[in-house]
Structure formats: C-alpha cells, structure tokens
Design goal:
Elements: E1 8-11, E2 15-20, E3 29-34, E4 41-45, E5 54-59, E6 65-70, E7 75-82, E8 92-98, E9 113-118, E10 124-128, E11 133-137, E12 143-147, E13 159-164, E14 170-174
Antiparallel strand pairs: 1-2, 2-3, 3-4, 5-6, 6-7, 7-8, 9-10, 10-11, 11-12, 13-14
Length: 178
C-alpha cells in the first residue's frame, strides 16, 4: 500500500494502523492494514472528528482504543476500534473523546503534542513539544500530572517520541537535550 507522507504507526496482533497526509497536507487519514494480507486495508477518514495532523499514535493493551496526538489542533483524539475480522480489513474507527484544544501552557493543554501512549492501566501520556513536558491523563482524558515545565531549564527540551513498556517504564526522546 502507498501512503502520502506517512508519519505515525501503531500495531497489534491483527492490524497495523498508519497515519498519513492527503495531498492537501492534512494528516487526517488512518489506514487499518490487515497483518496477514498487507494489500488489504481500509482508509479511515478522520476529518469529520476534527483530526488534522496525526503525528503520533498508539494502541491500548486491549487493542480496542487508539490515541492520536494532533500536532495542528493541539489535542489528543481517542478512537474506539470495532468490527474486527481475521480475513479482511473492515475495522471501524469512531471518536470517543478529545482533549482541550487551545494552544496553551496550562495543565491539560498543549503546545504541539507529538506522541501519546497508554500505560497498562489505561492512563494516557503525551509529549508536549513546546511546553517541554510530558502530561498524564486518565482514561477519560482528564489531566492528572506533568513532568517538566515551560522553562527548558527544568529538564526536557522538545520531547518527541515516547514508548511505555509492559512494566510501565516510560521512554522519551528529547530532541534538544540529545
């Protein structure tokens, strides 16, 4: 399958999800690609939910929720996944909830989120690029805590990618701290 400028990926046992741009430059598309038959996929246009630039995304441990960091809209979008099939790609993606949408350094808001991931309890962590922090939300996308502050002297300097392992260790790439 060919994608226009792919930039996010999430995988579980049956499907690989790829986020990519349209030719107009808006990354509002996610394809569900069946792992057993890579040429079978369905394109999920998330534009109706408001998603604009799906920079990073991750699946929860059950594989039924997809969290997406939207760089352009300064939001997290969480989708419920359903209608799985072992023989073809017919996954349905429906918006479950969104976080706050203003460009801000206030708790629970973002200045360009880049990536997001779930821990084993369903909590959501997200990198907040220009606020130089990681934010934690509960499973209802209610703000819980943060690490780092708007000042780059406190630790992070543009955190980009992240991964949470099965022991809930959080790994973060920190662009300007090398």
């Amino acid at each position: 399958t060919i994608y226009n400028f792919p930039h996010s990926i999430a995988a579980h046992s049956a499907f690989v999800y790829v986020g990519y741009n349209s030719w107009s430059g808006h990354g509002r598309y996610i394809s569900a690609v069946h792992r057993g038959v890579l040429n079978r996929s369905n394109t999920l246009d998330t534009g109706s939910s408001g998603l604009r630039y799906n920079f990073g995304m991750s699946l929860n441990s059950g594989g039924n929720r997809l969290i997406v960091a939207d760089y352009d809209r300064n939001q997290l979008f969480e989708y419920s996944l359903s209608n799985y099939s072992s023989t073809r790609s017919n996954v349905s993606l429906s918006l479950r909830q969104k976080s706050n949408s203003s460009y801000s350094s206030s708790n629970g808001y973002f200045a360009r989120p880049i990536d997001a991931a779930y821990d084993s309890s369903g909590n959501i962590y997200a990198t907040d690029l220009y606020n130089h922090r990681i934010q934690k939300f509960n499973s209802s996308l209610v703000y819980q805590a943060k690490v780092g502050t708007y000042s780059t002297s406190s630790g992070f300097r543009n955190p980009y990618g992240m991964h949470i392992d099965s022991s809930n260790n959080i790994y973060v790439t920190d662009y300007f701290n090398y």
